[in-house]
Design brief:
- The chain is of the alpha/beta class.
- The chain has one domain: Divalent-metal-dependent TIM barrel enzymes (TIM Barrel, Alpha-Beta Barrel), CATH 3.20.20.150.
- The chain contains ten helices and ten strands.
- It has helices spanning 3-14, 48-53, 58-67, 89-102, 120-140, 159-180, 196-206, 225-232, 256-266, 282-299, and strands at residues 38-43, 72-76, 105-110, 144-147, 183-187, 211-216, 236-241, 244-245, 252-253, 270-274.
- The strands form two sheets. It has an eight-stranded parallel β-barrel, surrounded by six helices. Strands 8-9 form a two-stranded antiparallel ribbon.
- β6, α8 and β7 (236-241) form a beta-alpha-beta unit.
- α5 packs parallel to α6, α6 (159-180) crosses α7 and α7 (196-206) runs parallel beside α8.
- The chain is globular and about 50 Å long.
- The protein starts with a helix and ends with a helix.
Length: 301
């Protein structure tokens, strides 16, 4: 994936998308912005317990995001009551209406898939799941939908053979995304592709402007996770900021200044989303992370 293609993909993630078979940015004369332009979102998984036990709803989460000054929300598919079936349009449109009232974007949706599964029928079912939820993404006005590699034993097959499955499945999903005007974003999730070079290899082999990277800073467990993050930064379509990184697999509080420096040095323009995985009050944790990121961002020129 060359730099021009990466810039197009990043632009798409911030720009309203047009349904069709051709990118509206092909041969565009629009000049890139001279300054980085960041928007902020919150990922629903931060409220996993609250959303599952009924303590919170998406509407509550949206009100919280607006209250602390975020620009958008990530509405993960499996918190809809109908999942894996798609919700009724009436439910989706109420969420869109609420977002408009609060001045928010619904920037992101996500599903749970497993393309490491040796069973071709199982992979086909997950491919169909992604196709259906890309329609949901379009109905919500989201610009990107998260997918995984999946994780499962693949006894009898080599890792390279499994990577061929991944590339083929992701190419098909990217075509589905193009049809709906939605970028399919692979979240590096420390479950099959464990380092930045493996992730980059898959991105290059899929080679589609409708397939990007959701850079999860908490899923790189190498000796120096910041070096791994920096390698992936040029390919990022969307960023997930978490409260911990894992050098050699050891949970360590994130150095927000280092993350901000990588983002700024790369000239990234797009969404930065916050996700908490810690025990405690997720509202307090997210608010603290958000405040820390903004302060670091303002200090680094």
């Amino acid at each position: 994936m060359n730099r021009k293609r990466r810039n197009i993909v990043r632009s798409l993630a911030l720009t309203p998308l047009v349904v069709g078979t051709h990118s509206p940015f092909t041969n565009s004369s629009i000049k890139p912005l001279t300054q980085t332009r960041i928007q902020y979102s919150i990922n629903a998984y931060s409220f996993n317990s609250q959303l599952r036990n009924g303590e919170m709803t998406f509407l509550d989460m949206m009100e919280f995001a607006a209250e602390i000054g975020m620009n958008g929300v990530d509405l993960t598919g499996y918190y809809f009551d109908s999942y894996p079936d798609v919700p009724q349009n009436s439910e989706l449109f109420q969420l869109k209406k609420k977002a408009l009232e609060l001045g928010l974007n619904i920037s992101w949706t996500g599903v749970r898939n497993n393309f490491v599964n040796p069973d071709a029928a199982g992979r086909a079912a997950d491919r169909e799941l992604i196709r259906k939820w890309l329609t949901v993404s379009s109905s919500l006005g989201a610009s990107i939908m998260r997918v995984f590699t999946g994780s499962q034993t693949y006894e009898g097959f080599t890792k390279d053979e499994v990577k061929e499955w991944l590339v083929n499945e992701f190419k098909t999903c990217a075509k589905y995304g193009e049809e709906k005007g939605i970028i399919v974003g692979l979240q590096n999730h420390n479950e099959f592709l464990f380092d930045s070079d493996e992730v980059i290899d898959i991105l290059k082999r899929v080679d589609s402007e409708w397939f990007g990277l959701i850079l999860d800073i908490g899923s790189l467990h190498a000796k120096d996770p910041y070096a791994e993050i920096e390698k992936l930064a040029p390919y990022a379509t969307y960023w997930f900021i978490k409260e911990h990184v894992f050098p050699n697999g050891n949970r360590t509080p994130v150095d927000m200044k280092k993350i901000v420096s990588i983002i700024k040095n790369q000239g990234y323009q797009g969404y930065v989303s916050f996700e908490s995985l810690s025990d405690g009050d997720p509202k307090q944790i997210i608010s603290s992370m958000f405040d820390s990121f903004k302060k670091a961002y303002e200090k680094i020129s």
